[in-house]
Design brief:
Blueprint: E1 4-9, E2 18-24, E3 27-34, H1 37-62
Antiparallel strand pairs: 1-2, 2-3
């Protein structure tokens, strides 16, 4: 089974956005700019809820 991890990165300096990144088995799968940590955490919460179904569909496509 794939191992998915999500994280919200702080901006490297003023004027840059926070970044939401999703990694699967150590590979970057998605990255999105967000306005705040709270927005990023909310996005990750939704993404991670959907992750098992996304993995299942991807595995079915490999067959």
């Amino acid at each position: 089974m794939a191992n998915a991890t999500g994280i919200v990165y702080d901006p490297p300096r003023a004027g840059f956005p926070h970044l939401v990144a999703v990694f699967m088995d150590g590979k970057l799968m998605n990255c999105e700019a967000v306005a705040s940590v709270a927005e990023g955490e909310a996005m990750l919460s939704e993404i991670m809820k959907e992750m098992p179904e996304m993995i299942k569909k991807a595995q079915e496509g490999d067959n």
